[in-house]
Amino acid sequence: MAKVLKQNDLYRFVTYDAQPSHNTFNTLRKRLGTKGFVEIHKRFVSNAYNLGLLDPKINDLPKNRKKGIILVADSTFLITAGSTRGQKDEQGKWRFNDESVAFSGKGHHSHKYPVGHKAHSLRTISGVPLVTLLTPANESDQAVIMLLIEVVSRYPYLKFAYIILDKGYDAEEIHHDIYEFFGIIPIIIRKKMVYPKGFTEDGYPLCQWGLAMKPRGIEYKQRRTKYACFKICKKSEQSLLFSCDYIKEQYKYGYTCHTYFNEGYRKYGPAVPHSLIYKKLKPFRTGIERTFGLVKENRYRMEMSNFYKGIDNVTIHAIEHDIVFTQDIIFDYIKTGKISPVLNLDGLLPKSY
């Protein structure tokens, strides 16, 4: 930054040719530390919240959805500024000059040497970054997601409803822990699932005559999903082959049953693939890719100016870019009314407007 300011004629004119040195910025970073930069970023997030940018109105979502901010999480590789030449220790593990870096475990499409850090980010669905944590590049996303959600409690005035994650997070303990420990409904893109006998391939329970039932709603307090047959057999050709007591008038919805979350959070709730909220939020996966496309583009530009070593210094570097990204979103909204750089919300106003 010191170099750029020295080359800026306008800045030199305004400051009477007095430019801060590189050491000035370095001293500021040391004094603030990671906690100081986090506090700066929190102030910008607060501004974005007051403008209604964290929880924009999305008309396509169910009106009875859980109220709160929709989160997205993902990670991106960040190349190291240090040497990529390492040595193996006595245990056969690679050691580098910067002890906080590691092999990513696979080749990377943008870099010849897959050695560096991984930036794990938690953002709102509208693109505003809330938390970024740095780990060595070989750390798995599943190992960090719970810590990310725990750290987001630095915003006690925010209420979170859903978190959208890709297939890399599709594990039973992740589904369970996010809901039970934080009260957030995980919308996780599923890998292949096999349901037991008595269910369709898509997870709908079958009635005693083998017909697929339909959901009647999710009862979150009881941790279960209610299903009913809605007397579908009356419209089926099979109705001539059997007589079902639930067709009678006293059974308004016909036969009803429940599936319980504790039978398997991944398969039975609180947001299974055939539920309405899952179907509505899943297409926003493309928005997530666009969100993190901006993040990754920003990260790669960041790598051009990343000369820092050590997990704390690189974390500060990442938070600086989160601050700038948050500023950009706020500036665009104030100047143009654009709510999000990653969602097509033209014509919609934030809820707090």
From TrEMBL:
It comes from the Bacteria. Residues 68-310 form the Transposase IS4-like domain. GO terms for molecular function: DNA binding; transposase activity. GO terms for biological process: DNA transposition. It holds the Pfam family DDE_Tnp_1. This is Transposase. It comes from Candidatus Desulfaltia bathyphila. The lineage of its organism: Bacteria, Pseudomonadati, Thermodesulfobacteriota, Desulfobacteria, Desulfobacterales.
